[in-house]
């Protein structure tokens, strides 16, 4: 029997722009939030998406879920293009694709009880369910995420951030989705609570056979949960590889720069790695640099990097990198994480 995992989701040539007003009578400017985005997600995989603030992570998550309409490109769910689905069909498809937000308390309606919040997606997506069936599902889902049954009639403000995120996870889980986009799910939580929520997501993934997209600006958070990691810079993919490849043999200078923010215990190694640290501000996506958009902050850049956009090349059996100079950039072995 063929055991090859199937592609649950395929993103093809995705582009998303926003029109930015630049004054009452001025023509709006175009901000390109995502461009030329191509990748696939296999069933059962966790794909991490990393990059600095403003690089397009949330926009990508929202375009996948059709909470935002892309300008161009396809979002293929088991081969079916979600961007072309009529609203009613998309509403039904939503059961399969859910989202968990960054700020758990802000994303929960303060006037609804925990039970009402968790049951809410069922009211719209499974209106045929009877009240008792809904309640039974809510209690089962609460148990799965570690909430006690007696919490069902309480309100969000009575909960800590970690508990509130469990409510958000239960709300996403109740429709029995196949894919959950986790948009910075632990960034707003205390460090001591972050590991609990990450472990819970990993357990739920195994228990329910979920596929996860895990968005974070923090590469160390993504490392622990992801099979593969997609690195975004100014709305473009600069690298896509397995977690081990990204950590042990990063090919793109931007990935190397992100790695310098991941703590390592040895101060000598940390100093060596710091030469890769990011310098300067991220350029405006309204007027990005010509050629390679990372060149203005790249310590390996040469004049020709300003001339052409580097293509996203497939290298070493499937990983992707977009850098004119990746072949010439050697990573000193002792500077690599964990060596
Ligand atoms: N509704 C919008 N209108 C105009 N510009 C937007 C809108 N949403 C996002 N942007 C812009 O698109 C770019 C990508 O934003 P996005 O929120 O996707 O980035 P991000 O990587 O998720 O950042 P963060 O980690 O800060 O959330 C940014 O320049 C942002 O200002």
Automatic annotation (TrEMBL):
It is found in: Cell inner membrane. It is a peripheral membrane protein. CDD domains: ABC_NikE_OppD_transporters. The keyword Zinc does not apply. InterPro entries: AAA+_ATPase, ABC_transp_ATP-bind, ABC_transporter-like_ATP-bd, ABC_transporter-like_CS, Oligopep_ABC_C, P-loop_NTPase. PROSITE patterns: ABC_TRANSPORTER_1, ABC_TRANSPORTER_2. Keywords: ATP-binding, Nucleotide-binding, Transport. Signal peptide: none annotated. Gene3D superfamilies: P-loop containing nucleotide triphosphate hydrolases (3.40.50.300). Residues 9-259 form the ABC transporter domain. Pfam families: ABC_tran, oligo_HPY. One of its GO terms (molecular function) is ATP binding. SMART domains: AAA. PANTHER family: D,D-DIPEPTIDE TRANSPORT ATP-BINDING PROTEIN DDPF-RELATED (PTHR43776:SF7), TRANSPORT ATP-BINDING PROTEIN (PTHR43776). NCBIfam families: oligo_HPY, PRK11308.1. Belongs to the ABC transporter superfamily. This is ABC transporter ATP-binding protein.
